[in-house]
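REVIEWER CHECKLIST
Item 1: Sequence provided? yes
Item 2: Single chain? yes
Item 3: Sequence as submitted:
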Amino acid sequence: MLYREDGNGLKSSEGDNDASKPTCFFDESLLACDICLEIMHNAMNVSPCNHKFCAGCIYEWNSLNNKCPKCRWNAADITRDATLNSIIEQYLIAFPEKRRDKAQLIELDERELNHLEQWDRKRESDEGDYDYDMEDQFFESEDSDSFEVQDEQLESDEDDGLEYSSSDRWSENDMIGSFDEDDDENDADRQDEYISRRNLEKARMERLRREKEERDRLKELEAERSRKTSAKSKKEKSRERRCGTGGGN
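Item 4: Structure as written out by the authors:
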């Protein structure tokens, strides 16, 4: 069968007269989670390898093993991939039959919620409620090699026999001071990014928690209705037996 590609990048077959049916123009496996093998639900990116998984799948895996399940690199960070999630949502709008059933999505959301709540409790139990730490392993310290290189360069300049006026050359203090300012700006940017991510994480956790509470409430209502219906049925059967016994005498 021959395929043609239209101006929007969508493929259509010459033998297919139903123009209302869209055709996927890229490999669907790019949207699949490598753990559950389904289209990803709330896709997450693992750093530094950049492999993608469902949030519920990768969080459950990460609670047992801190390596990427696909390449086995150490997972330094797990973040939500907003761009990929947008692509997946558009794909599922075009191909609704690919969307997983509600029970599966609820299970994934509850796995994710369990992880977020565990980490939230851990942060609260840590000193300072897991405050942003400028000495964290993901951020450079003042002992960085960049400072040593600059010190060596200064010593080299002093030994080369050249003379510099104050307008031609920075002093050592000026140079190191400039690095301090750059580091302060970079640390501030990282702190802002960290706070933004934490706020988004908390907002999602609250939304998942509210959805779970609503499901639990509806389950309780359904269970209560079921108990009342069962009790009413038992009373009616008991009344029928009594009436039947009385009629027989």
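Item 5: Key structural point noted by reviewer: The longest helix spans residues 172-248.
Item 6: Recommendation: ____
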